[in-house]
Amino acid sequence: MKFRSALLAVGALALTVGLSGCYESSDVTRFEPGEYKGADDPLLAKLEDPEFRAELDSRFDGQRDR
Amino acid sequence: MARMKFLCDADRCIECNGCVTACKNANDVPWGVNRRRVITLNDGLPGEKSISVACMHCTDAPCAAVCPTDCFYTTTDGIVLHDKDLCIGCGYCFYACPFGAPQFPTTQAFGVRGKMDKCTFCAGGPDEPGSASEYQKYGANRIADGKLPACAEMCATKALLAGDGDLVADIYRNRMMSRDGRPQTWGWAKAYGAGA
Amino acid sequence: MKLIRKHAASEAVKFSNGKAFDRRTFLKRSGLTAGGTALAAAMPLSMMRRVDAQTPPERNGGPVETKRTVCTHCSVGCGAVAKVQNGVWIGQEPDFDSPFNMGGHCAKGAALRSHGHSDKRVKYPMKLENGQWRRLSWDQAVQEIGDKMLQIREESGPDSVWMCGSSKASNEGAYLQRKFAAFWGSNNIDHQARICHSTTVAGVANTWGYGAMTNSYNDMHNCKAMIFIGSNAAEAHPVAMQHILRGKENGSKLIVVDPRLTRTAAHADQHIRIRPGTDIPFVWGLLWHIFENGWEDQEYIRQRVYAMDDVRAEVANWTPDKVQDVTGCTEEEMYQAAKTLADNRPGTIVWCMGGTQHHVGNANTRSYCILQLALGNIGKVGGGANIFRGHDNVQGATDVGPNCQTLPGYYGLADAAWQHWARVWDVDYEWLRNRFDDGRYADNSGEPSHPMNLPGVPVSRWIDGIIEDPDHFSQRDNIRAVFFQGHAVNSQVRGPEMKEAVEKLDMVVISDPYPTHLAVMSERTDGVYLLPTATQFEQAGSCTASNRSLQWREKVVDPLYESKTDAQILYLFAQKFGFADQMFKHISVDSDGHPSPEDTLREINRGAWTIGYTGQSPERLKLHLENKHTFNTTTLKAEGGPCDGDTYGMPWPCWGTAEVKHPGSHVLYNPELPVSKGGLPFRARFGTEHNGNNILAEGSWSKDSEIQDGHPAVSYGMLRTMGWHTDLTPNEMATIAWVAGLAERPNGSVSEADIAEFRDMESDALDGVAWHTDVSGGIQRICLKHEVAPFGNAKARCIVWTFPDPVPVHREPLYTSRYDLVSEYPTHEDMQTRWRLPTRYASIQANDYSGDFPLVFTSGRLVEYEGGGEETRSMAWLAELQQEMFVEINPADANDRGLRDNDWVWLEGPEGGRIKIRAMITPRVGRGVVWTPFHFGGWFQGKDLIDRYPDGTAPYVRGEACNTAKTYGYDPITLMQETKSTLCQIQKAA
User: Fold this and answer.
1) Candidates 3.30.450.20, 3.30.70.20, 3.10.310.30, 3.40.50.11810; correct CATH number of B4-186?
2) Which terminus of chain B faces fewer neighbouring Cβ atoms within 10 Å, N or C?
3) Is the confidence at residue C274, as pLDDT, over 80?
4) Do B18 and C864 touch (CB under 8 A)?
5) Which residues does residue B81 pair with via DSSP β-bridges, in sequence order?
C-alpha cells in the first residue's frame, strides 16, 4: 500500500518533470511551510491579550519625533 | 490584528551602526554574527544611501518554507521565530532568505554550535520568556517585557522604526507630508523619474 | 517544508537581485576577514563568561536598579539608561525622556554597556621595570610616583612635571585637575580641547564674547539653512543628525563643504569640495557674492557689528576666479551657496576640526563668525554658530577644567585671576604664589614674566617641552616627567619626535582606564606607571554638552577592578604632597577617599561668574534629571512641572546664584528675550571704543533692559551711578568690600550697621569690583532685576587688533600642494616665543615638498571610534565593525601608484614619519587628497606593538596612528596643531 502510493508519487513527479520540458509553464514549484514542529512559545498567548498589545503600541511612542 | 514590521527611512539613515551595536548589546550577539547590518549603496558617490537590514519577518517567509525540520513559526502579529532545538544548521534558509538574515555562529556563545541565528524582533524564542535558556539561545525577549526591538528604539535619527505596521506607516506618512517638497523616499525617483 | 505546486508566478516573492545587498561591501566593512575570524576563535571563553554574567534578571535574583547617565563619546549629551543588578551592568535601555537624543544612540552610545564589563582595562597599578610590567599596590604607586615628582620639583622646579587632564573627566574631575596643578605650582597642565576647538574658543570669544556654541542641536529644527564646514556630523555627532534632518524636513537647505563626500554630505542639498586649508578664501568667496548682491543685513550690522568695512576691503580681493584657483570651488557653486544662505534666513553655520585644526585656525573661526554676522544670523532662533564640540565634556573641561592659559571660567592667569580663585578656594594668595618657581621667563613679547602668569606648555607641544633647547624655553628646565590623566597621545602629530621625547623622560605616568598608545609607543623599559582609572560610568558628576547644558550623571557601577576616580587619585597625590587640606578645604571627602562631586560643583558655582556656571547647583541639575520628559525638544524649555520655564541643563550663562533661578541661556546673544529669561546682547569685552569708534551696541538691547543702549560690563561703580547699589544686601555689600580689599572676609551674617560705611563710599577699589569678581553674586542679581546683561552690551567685532591678522587673511598651509601660491599667501614669520616655546612658520614653508609629497593629507572620524580610540577599540561590539586602519585614496591616485583595493601601503609624511596601512580606493576623496581616520594606535611605523601591552590589555583592534606621519604647524594664538592639511606620499608596501 505504502509502496504503491510512493510509486504513484514518483510516477506523478516523473510525469510532471517530463511534461514540463515540453511547454513553457507559468506555474512554478515552490515551497510552503510545513507544520511547525517545535516547542510552544508562551509569548504567543500573551500577544493575544489586548491590554498587552496596547502596552506595546504605547511603547512605540518612544520612536516618534517628540 | 496588525503585523509587527521594521521600516528603515533611507532619508534619515546615516549609517551610524547604532542599530548594529544596539542589537549586540540587547542580545549579546557574539563576534562575527550580525543579526542586523547597514547596507550602503553608491558608497562615496553622490546619491549615497544607506539602509539597515535584518530579518524582515516576511509574511510568507521563505526560510520557513524551505526548512527541512519545520522549526519556524510566526507569531500572530507576524514575527518570524524559530526553535533552535530543532534547527540542524543546514543553511537552507540562508539560501532562501532574500536579505541574508540567517547567521551561523562558529562559536558556542549561543549554546548551539552552528545552529542558525537571526533577528528575533527582540522576541526571543519558544523557551519561557525571560528565562536563562531563552537568553542564551535567542537573546533578549523585549517584546514579552512590553518593549520593542532595541535597534529601532535606539536608532540615532529615528530612521529605523519597529512596531505595529500601521503605526510605523503612520509615522512614515507624516514625515513624507512634512518633507516640504522633498519626496526623497527610497525608490521615489525610480517610480516617478528623477526630479519628480 | 513541503513541496507543492503553486499557480502564482505573478505573486512570487521578488528575490533580491543581489545588488541591493552588497555582501562584499558588508564583508569588508564588518570585517569577517582573516583578522576577525582569528579573533573570534580566540574569544569564546570570554564570550561565555559574559553571557553568564548576562543571565536575565528573574533568574539572577536581586532587584534591578535603573541608573541614568550620559554617553561619554561626543558632545551631544545623549542620555542613557542602565539596568544594574548586584552591581553588574546587565542591560541598557533607550532614554526616550532625554530631550537631546530621545532614546537615540550611534554605534558607540548603543554599545555603552560594554564599558561595564571590559576586560581590556588596566586592572591594578603597574610599573614597567626592565621591560616587564610589575603589579604594585596603590600605596606603592603613589609613594614612588610622588617621590619622583618631588625629586624633579627639587632639582628642576615644579614646571618640569607636565600634567594632562581630560575632556573625558566630569566637570568636577576636570576642575580638580586644574586646581591640582595650581596647588602643585605650575601652569603646565592642559587637555585635548587644545587640539579640538581651542582656535574656536579664541576666535569666537574675540568676536562676540564667549567661545562656545551659540544655539543648540535642538534649535536646528528652526533653521532655514545650514552650512557645515569641516564637520562630518553623521560620523562625529550622529545623534545631532536627528535634529539636523528634522530641520531639513522642516524645509531647511543643507550645504556641506568638505574635501570628502562625507556621510553628512550624502544628505546635503549641495556638497562643495574644498581644498584643505583654504577656508578663509572660501568664506570670503561667499561674502564676495553676498556683498556684491547687497544680501548683507545692513541694519543688524549697523547696530551690532563693528568693522565690517575692514572685511569688505579684504573680501573685494577674492573675486570668483581667484577663489576657484585657490579653493577649487567654481563661481557657480559659490554663487549658489551664497544665494541659498541669503534667501533662507535664519541659517546656522556648523564647523568642527576641519576648520579648527590649522595653523590659521583662529582666523578660520573668525571668518565663519563674520559670515554669520554679515547675514545677521547670530542671536537668532534657528541661526547661530553651532560649533559642535568633540568629547562628552570637552565644553565643561574648557570652561572650568585643565587649561594651560587660564584658570577655571576663562579668568586668565593675571594676578587678579589668581586672587579671585584664591578667594574662592579660601587659600592665601601668597602661599599659592610661593608654590611656583620664582624665576622670570620671556613671554610672547619677550618681557620677563613670572611662571604663575605665563601660559604653560599646551598639549600640542608637550614633546617640545622635552626636546626644545632649554635656552629657548621659557621655564627653568625641560619637562622631565609627564602625568597623563585621560588623554591619547596618538592624537598629536610628529610621531618619531614624540617617541624620542618619551624616551628622554625620567618618568611617564598614565592614569587611564586603558594603557593607551603612550604605554607602548616608545622603547622605554623602565619608569612607566599605569594607574587604573575609573570611567564616568563608575562615578557621579556633571558634564557639559556642546550646547552649554549641564547634565548630572548617576554612578552606574562601582569602579571596576582596582580603579579609582580622577578625583580620588588627585586626592591621594594631594595628600602625598601635603596640600590636601588646603585643596579640599570646602570639599568633603568620604571614607573611601572620594571627594564629593556635589561639593566640588558648588565650589565651581561659587567661582565661575564670568560664564554663569553659578546657577547650576547639583540640586537643580538633579531636578532636571528627574524631569527630563517635561522639556520641549525644540525650545528645550520645561513646560510646567517642577522645572517650569527652565532651559534643559541650564545652558551657561545661568546668571547669579541658584536661588535667583535663572533659566539658563538657550540661544546666546538673543535680544528678543529679557536677560532674566535667557536673552543677551553681545558681550562688551574689548573696551568701549577703538580708534575713536564706539564699539558698544547702537540702538539694540535685550528685551526690557532698563539701559536702552550699549553699555560696558557692569561693576559696582556702575550700580552706584545708576543708584541701584542700595539694593545690595548687607552680606553682598560686605563681600564686595572684601573683594575690593577694604574689609575682612565676611564671616556669618552681616548687619546693615556693619557695612554702613561702604554704602556711600566713593572708592576706585570698590567701584572696580565687577560682575565677574563679586563672589556674592549681588551685582548679577541686581543686573537681572533691571534686565541688564552683566557683561555689557557691545558690538561683535570683525577685527581683532591684538591678533597677528586683525582681519583673517589666507595663508597657505606650511606644507602645501600649491607651492606656487606661497609667494602671494605666505605663512607667518617664525615667532621667538609663543607662550613658552619658539614656534616656526616661514622657515618650514621655505622648502617646497609638493614634488616628493604630492598628496594632500587630511584626517577625520569614524562613527565606531572616538578620539585616540583606545577605549572604543577595546570594545568588541565596536571593534568588530572597524578592524583595520586604512587610507582613502581616489581611484586616479591609486592607479597612478599601481594600487589595488585593500593593498598594504606606506604613507610617508615630509618629516619622515611613515605608517603602514590598507588602501581603500574610493571616489569619496577627490583627486590629490587622501584621508585617514585618526583613532588608531598600538602600531608604530609598520610594527604591531601588541607584545608591549600588559597581559590582556591590548585593544582588539590596533593600527597605525595617522599622526605619526603628520607634521609641524601651530596656530599662533592657541597653539592648535595643523592636522587637517599636510602632505604625504603613498606607495605600495612590499
Assistant:
1) 3.30.70.20
2) C
3) yes
4) no
5) B73
